[in-house]
Design goal:
With 248 residues, the chain is an alpha+beta fold. Helices cover 28% and strands 24% of the residues. It has a 5-stranded antiparallel sheet with strand order 9-8-7-10-11. The chain has a 4-stranded antiparallel sheet with strand order 3-6-4-5, covered by helices on one side. A two-stranded antiparallel ribbon has the order 1-2. The chain is globular.
Length: 248
Amino acid sequence: MSTTAGSSWKIPLVLPLLAWGYHLDHARWLRACRAWQDAGVPIANPAAVLASNSDKHYLDALARRGIAIPPTTWTERVTREQIDAMFEATGAAQLIVKPAVSGGAWQTQRVRRGEALVGAPDGAAMIQPYLPTIETAGETSLLFFGGRLSHAVNKRPVDGDFRIQVQYGGLYSAVPSPPAGALALAEQTLAAIGAPLLYARIDVVPDADGRWLLMEAELIEPDFYLGQDPNAGAGFAQAVRAHLTTTP
């Protein structure tokens, strides 16, 4: 609610879909989310969700609620000892190291067994085994609008890379019918989040045994991959309309 020259006007809905770069000034982002929440700004997704989803520790919280994620070491500062311990515990040939607050593969690196650790994140980070299935099966993203599945997209890295983002050459293709296991995990994840979400992108990858694992639940400003949506975003428009007509 904003008041100007004695009159007031109410914003029906704020969509934070261009909130890029929050990971570069995370403290400021958290202050903004708190201010929006305290002011009762009608924002979707909710400000509390925008805050919690900006730190990848949300994955740890979901794991504690029964959501399958890759084995993960959480640390306030990456050390060689932690890297060696994760190699030993998982038997992985490669690991992924990324900041706990990141976006678009920012400061994310792949470390091979026996390789020197160079350029590790300065602060809080997560260490996971690299899943080679990202190259063969790819990462599957399931898009939900208003709690309903809209469409799914498969993403694979180019040869020699591990990042599936389009800026690194990631190859995207529509998935007419997502695998049953991927859909089940996505729906389980949404239930575990337990928040009123206008939109969500759930990214999952199968491990070597075919078990689906949650990589990310993107709830702030995810790419909706509308280029691969057979309905060209109609599901999102319908969800926004429904939100506006049912929210006081």
